[in-house]
Amino acid sequence: MAARALRARSADMTISHPAPKPPRTLTALNKLIAAAPPLTPGAGRAVFGEGPLGAPVAFVGEQPGDVEEKEGRPFVGPAGKLLRDMMQDAGLKPERSYLTNAVKHFKFVQRGKRRLHQKPNVGEIERYRWWLGLELELVDPDVVVALGATAVRALVGKSVPIEANRGAYMFGQRRGYITVHPSALLRIPEQDARRAARAAFLADLKRIRAMAEERTPKRTPRSRR
To answer: What is the mean pLDDT of residues 15-29?
Structure first.
């Protein structure tokens, strides 16, 4: 495998459960978050993760955007389309991967008719952290990919510099990988810098695919949907 050796790093994935009995299926988990109030007054529905149980790779982003909230699906806006296209280029099938976000509601500020993205704060990330931990337990992917700072904070429980830790990373007992969020690639104005950043992101995705191909034996599956 062309990826660097897995570093001996780990993250605290201790999750506090607000429910007396943690949900045992994704359906039950989704019902809890659907009933929770959004981060922004007037925001719409929660956007759940999408993909098969036991997916080789789970991608964790920051939060749904305006398009995602309207369609009720993760990673279908401009950054999501870029991610899905580059996954295909790297040999990762989006339909065989699990796609989700650390925060399940769209946080925004209203500017006229536009809803402009607002970054979740630490308390808001922590509010959803229990949810993300249970979600990943139920999906049980081989590799968890943190896309950007919010996803890393949700998985690790503290701030971790992206570029200094970019690459293979252990999230508790689960193999993972830290990289940038695809939205960062869309914000680079200079063409050569944008091309270099996309090449680096594609290289990340190819390393992630190689990690996923080294699949660990799975336990006997149980009904978790």
So the answer is: 74
